Write the structure tokens for this entry.
Amino acid sequence: MRKITFIIILLTGFIVFSGCTKKEKLLTKSWRYEKLESKIMDEQIAMEKERIKTVPDSLKGELERRLHDFEQMMTVDMKKSTMDFKQDGTFSSDNLGEKSDGKWSFTKDKKILVLNTDLGGGNTITDSLEIITLDEKQLKLKSRKEGDDGILTLVPKDATK
């Protein structure tokens, strides 16, 4: 009986994964945000730091605190955000407590990850992300939106922080 159960489990796993491409197998797991790179954001932070130097001392402390909080959110806090890609083509995300669900797919050439996020009421928003890296240890995506130079790096959720 044990042998039959083992064979059934083995065949089920084979059937489930046989329809997946290598990229789909690599993608379908839980990922944790690791880093967001953006020249535009870096320039804005640098400009804000320069602006803070010119404001009255009575405002500097509050502006510096706000900037510090923003930088903290973009470096430390964002590592709490996750994306879970499932084999059935659905995903769920938790972005600093803001949860969303949707459907994912690849373009035919497997170079673009397309996310259709459910906004409720039958409305969705579509994001197309260029896949820079997709392997066992890292998922690196580049925004394709005009005016957005962001590159998001994710690591497996169970990877040490």
In short: The two ends are 43 Å apart (CA to CA). Confidence is low (pLDDT under 50) at residues 1-19. The chain has one domain: 27-156.
